[in-house]
Amino acid sequence: MKVTITDIAKKLGVHTSTVSLALNNSPKISEATKAKVRNAAAEMGYQINPYVAALMSSIRSGKIPKNPPTLAFITASETPDKWKENHNFIEFHRSCKTTALNMGIQVEIFWLGDSNLTAKRLDDILFNRGILGSIFLPTGKRREKMNHAWSRIASVSYGIYDITPSIDRVKADHFGNMEKVLNEIKARDFQRIGFVMETPYPYKNQNRWHASYLIEQETMPPKRHLKPMLDEDPTFDKFKAWFEAENPDVIICVDIAKVEIWLNKMDLQVPQDVSLVTIGNAHENPAYSGMIENSSDCGKMAVEALLDRIHGNQIGTPESPRVITIRGRWQPGKTLLGSA
């Protein structure tokens, strides 16, 4: 097993940042501490990887070198550009690229969805090119190909799907985003909060939207408990039956446009008669009230988490994978009465 700066820090009883700064000859660390850290590193067999050295040099200078260190951005959708149809994926990649470029590092896209490319083959390609850091976007029909023991790189993934063996992951805070939506709704004194969703949405998000909603319902008087409409194939007739049974004055959903059409068909106006709030797609229209997922901050955090692993020489599957969640941003919009 490779010796990491964490191992050195534990041996000396100091923080990992002290070891890192000492090994990089920082003026912030005394010469005595530097010597102690270097001696311990030598005794323990710690070796600074040339890639890591180049990476840290780029970060410190903030300039793009002639041969910049590279981080891999790995996708596995059915076509090379299919993932670009998703707004959050585009923003995430843009942020990854910008964050890395500001440190003198380039980000290169690799498509694992190619039927002729196996995970083992890509692993070999990355290793032969000296790439030690990879950002995974596990989405699309071929995401299962990412389930591989990436033992020669440090890795982080983005989104709701995990990779086996588990690696660090950055994703939207779905539970917290629903909490924010519910708090905004309650602040406007709505009494009957409905939840309408195609079943793939809450279940793909490990039920965190659903769980947050149900917990909130439990805090309300029984007469204000509304049964959520979770249907694999929601139709107008199903929605109308649910609406007449539950009688909500505000509805949380993903697709506001579809629900608004159904309400109009029932001669109900938004937001005068019924308010609508989107849990994650408010970016589609500034008039929509609801949450905008903070995919840009997710990208920045993914790069920083990955560089932290590389700098610490923590290559391969981590013993304790980290899951970092990022809260979204509330957009007032005009579909929630009293929000504009």
Helix and strand topology:
Elements: H1 5-12, H2 16-23, H3 31-44, H4 50-61, E1 70-75, H5 87-101, E2 106-111, H6 119-128, E3 133-137, E4 154-158, E5 168-172, H7 174-186, E6 193-198, H8 200-204, H9 208-218, E7 229-231, H10 236-246, E8 250-253, H11 256-265, E9 275-278, E10 290-292, H12 295-311, E11 323-326, E12 329-331
Parallel strand pairs: 1-2, 1-3, 3-4, 4-5, 5-11, 6-7, 6-8, 8-9
Antiparallel strand pairs: 10-12
Question: How would you describe the overall organization of this protein?
Answer:
Helix content is 39%, strand content 16%. The protein folds into three domains: 5-47, Orthogonal Bundle (434 Repressor (Amino-terminal Domain)); 70-172 and 296-328, Rossmann fold, CATH 3.40.50.2300; 174-293, 3-Layer(aba) Sandwich (Rossmann fold), CATH 3.40.50.2300. With 340 residues, the chain is α/β, with parallel strands linked by helices. The chain has helices at 5-12, 16-23, 31-44, 50-61, 87-101, 119-128, 174-186, 200-204, 208-218, 236-246, 256-265, 295-311, and strands spanning 70-75, 106-111, 133-137, 154-158, 168-172, 193-198, 229-231, 250-253, 275-278, 290-292, 323-326, 329-331. Strand 8, helix 11 (256-265) and strand 9 (275-278) form a beta-alpha-beta unit. Helix 1 crosses helix 3 (31-44), helix 2 (16-23) crosses helix 3 (31-44) and helix 7 packs parallel to helix 9. The mean pLDDT is 90. The strands form three sheets. It has a six-stranded parallel β-sheet with strand order 2-1-3-4-5-11, with helices on one face. It has twelve helices and twelve strands. It is elongated.
